[in-house]
Write a structure and sequence with these properties.
Layout (H helix, E strand, L loop, with lengths): L1 E5 L6 H12 L3 E3 H11 L2 H11 L6 H12 L8 E4 L5 H13 L6 E6 L2 H9 L1 E4 L5 E3 L18 E2 L6 H15 L1 H8 L3 E5 L4 H15 L1
Parallel strand pairs: 1-3, 1-4, 2-3, 4-8
Antiparallel strand pairs: 5-6, 5-7
The structure holds BIS(adenosine)-5'-pentaphosphate and zinc ion.
Length: 216
Amino acid sequence: MRLVLVGPPGAGKGTQAEYIAAHLAVPKISTGDIFRANVGQGTPLGVEAKRYMDAGQLVPDEVTINMVSDRLSEGDATDGFLLDGFPRTVPQANALDKLLADLGTGLDIVLELVVENEEVIRRLSGRRTCRGCGKIWHVEFDAPTHDGVCDRCGGELFQRDDDKAETIAERLKVYARDTSPLVDYYGAQGKLVGIDATGPVEDITVRAIDALRSYG
Ligand code: AP5
Ligand code: ZN
């Protein structure tokens, strides 16, 4: 299955992507994770991306599209994938459609995680991520047993640089302006399914998998 997850910052895309990709046995491809890995390694791509990420802005389309195109050409994505955080602009969506059409295929479904802004602000302000295994935690909603330590691997938890209040506000503005038009874009293709992304994480995973069963 070829699936895209769309939703505002903090909607729970990364959290749900892990479970849904495991359920479908497809690779999870997160552009945010790829950029963060490059930032961590200090690659030229990472140095360029960091300027935009720290400001809550999108990395330019051309850079992002080339990166995804390379990733999708890797063998593990041939039979399916879950994209988390891409596409995020209409030009990115057009590029993805073209890329897949050239491969003789297309997207099966675009799952929209629907959450209000007040809730995503609460989620982002308390988010912590594991340096070891990448597991996403929350200081209140999904707290590890010991402060700052991952239950799964014992790794250290950190707060993302772009989860500061002023950067969160900018990311939400950018989402409303540049990314929310994708709801109409994929709606017009008959591929969009919106699910309520509030409530316990496990309930949302069940809603997502039910939606895939009906549409995929
Ligand atoms: P990216 O990493 O994609 O960030 P984002 O879209 O802003 O999304 P987040 O990762 O912040 O949130 P999420 O929806 O994954 O939520 P999560 O599961 O963590 O992108 C970062 C930056 O990279 C961008 O700003 C941009 O600069 C650049 N970039 C990336 N892709 C790009 C592209 N295509 N084009 C251009 N630039 C790009 O959950 C959030 C918190 O909530 C966690 O603490 C979690 O534990 C908690 N939580 C999750 N579910 C629940 C629940 N049901 N109840 C309570 N808490 C919950
Ligand atoms: Zn861990």
